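Assemble and predict.
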Amino acid sequence: MRFLASILLAAMATTASAHAVLTGTSLEGKTVRAGAETTVTLRFNSAIEAGLSQVKLVDAERHERALPLQPETTAGHVVVKVPPLEPGAYGLHYKIFAVDGHVTENVLRFTAALAE
Amino acid sequence: MLALADFSDGLLRGTLLLAMAVVVGAVPWGLVVLRAWRRPSDDPAARRAAGLVVVAGLGLAVCQLTLLGLKTVVLTAYVGPDAFAAFARTLQFQGGITRVVLALVVAGVGVWLRAAPDATMRWTVLAVADVVLLAGGATLVHAAGRLEHRAPLMLLTVLHQAAGIVWVGGLMHLVALGRLARRDPRAAAVWPESVTRFAVVAITSVALLVVVSLPLVWTYVGTWGGLLGSGYGSLVLAKVGLMGIALALGARNFRAARRAGLDVRGTVPALIEAEGLLLVTLLFTAAALASQPPAVDTPDTHATPVELVEVFRPKWPTLTTPSVARKREQTADPLAVVGNERTPTAYSWSNFSHNVAGVFLLAMSIVALIGQGGRARWARHWPLGLVGLALFVFLRASASDGTWPYGSVAPWSGDAEGLQHRIAALLALGLGLLEWRARAGRRPGRLARLFPALAAAGGILLLTHAHVAFEGKSSYLVQVTHVAMGVLAVLLAAGRWLELRLPGPAGRMAGTASGVAMLLVALVLLFYREANIVVGVG
């Protein structure tokens, strides 16, 4: 828990171009268990062109790692598998091309924490 | 290049809608207003309408192709070199290319129609091509990506577009006829009946527009909070406001037309031109709306009425600024991959810039209103204040971005907002010099007409101004001031246009209204406090 106290990252992120908006995520508490793979679902208000969308994992040193998008089962949902992480602050940097032609770029922040 | 693509998107979409309006509006114009089949094949009014279809069809194709090209550039930068192959498989690309082909077909039909505008068959072919063009556009609207009620929303959007562009397009054809009629007696003979018949087309279009807009607004806005407290809602309100003013002007035109005996050199053409200016702005506002997330999808970021009042209420302006070095300091947030959170320094910087611009404009508008009385001849030099304002805006944008004279960053490599501010500075400079020459000279002539044109361009720029690089609610609280100033700038332009075109008291009244609009823009700037955040100077 001690590192959690040192991390006060807000969930709110900035939007570079807007139309598709993130309406929900499976990262409800913005915290994932460190050391375990986590499936994350991002829910958008619009249908997504998966071939032109991408999600990258960003760490506190700004290193980015592309995460393959899982096959789409529900319209407007983007699913990625986040690999096991060390405890710390991370972001999911997503670039989404919606079916209506607008690009949305944003960062969803979360933390990885050891289980209590 | 990305900044340019971002900036151009709204302007290109607005121009595209205008071209669509001219193309689609041509059919009711030719068949209902001109009744072209009853006229000779060399009728100048019908030939002019067909000629406009050719130009607008080509313009539509160019706009759509450019949009596809810019989207490819953006996607390549985001996704990588394989982006085009993936983009070519999307509904957006295929719908866009279909629209390009259809626009070229429409332009071809326009050429064919121009050769024999009395042929009903040719108008029918144009009507069919227009219907296909409109229906094909269904895949390009926001509704195409919606997760619920997709098909009915697409249908409603297309009907909404059709009603709006028939009204605006018809008015563009009426303006063109008015200009032609001044030098062509055959066109002048058609003018009176065209004005009265167009009123029927306009009323029908507006009625349909209102009917199909209500379910769309209900679906995309949803609540009063969304209407008043979101970027989407503010643009909907701007559209309603512009439409209301245009309708009031239209009603006045209709009455004036009946009273004045429809003289093509009377007041009606000028009033119709002013109405046209408002409706063109309406189309650009519609284009800006298309790049906003619907209010119903962003309930957590809506501003409250109290926050809105706070944005506009009178308050003491900020007249001290953070240093350039402090402004350029980056935040140390390692996860700020997409822009940075707004810092207190950024807020203070922005407040000072806007408040000082308000001081410039307040002084100018007061002097301009004094000059409106006609006795204080010195007051005609008020436009020189715009030159000072342009210099101020340019220096602030340069200092913020590190471009010349504050650094070596290329002017086009900054963000879209910086580019917009530099273009705004150029517009202000052009406006100031042109208007000063026009007012200080004895015979202003055509030069004076550039001021309303540039002021309207400035208003459109403000309405399509992208303040999306920071958090939702604060972004909206900035945007709402820009939307208000955009609408006021267009009213200023329309007032000045009428002042130039109308003789006597009507012209003077329009001039005063224009001055009042400028004063209101000045007050919005003077009381501007970005996102209501009060910060000290760093």
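Chain B touches chain A at residues 6, 71, 74-75, 78-79, 83, 86-87, 89-92, 140-147, 290-294, 297-298, 334-341, 468-472 (CB under 8 Å).
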